[in-house]
Design brief:
Helices cover 63% and strands 5% of the residues. It has 119 residues and is mainly alpha-helical. The chain has a domain of 71 residues. Keywords: Biological rhythms, Nucleus.
Length: 119
Amino acid sequence: MADTSNTKKKRFKKGAEKGNGDEDDTEGEEYDVEAWDTLNKGFKQAQVVLEQNRELIQKVNENHRSKIPDNLVKNVGLIQEINGNITKVLEIYSDFSVNFSDILRQRRRTGNGKTDSRG
């Protein structure tokens, strides 16, 4: 089992922790924990904001269906919040894309996926 206490420099083999005897075509394929953690963190951050937007869109739809003038006015602020959240999601994707690319470039510089001692 891989020690993940220092995930920045760890690699693990897919299937190594299964212990169930099942074999597949990917047995022994290596994954860079830092790279996957970067992707996972970014997707989780984006998912939180997207879930907020889902809830805001539901509220906008309810307000629209109600045709109550006050509710329609509230939609202006809700739609502005949705737009702001879309910008947040774009920033999250952009940031983790850059971070992921940096990790891959570092791995290539240090020998096709081997970690660099600089950390």
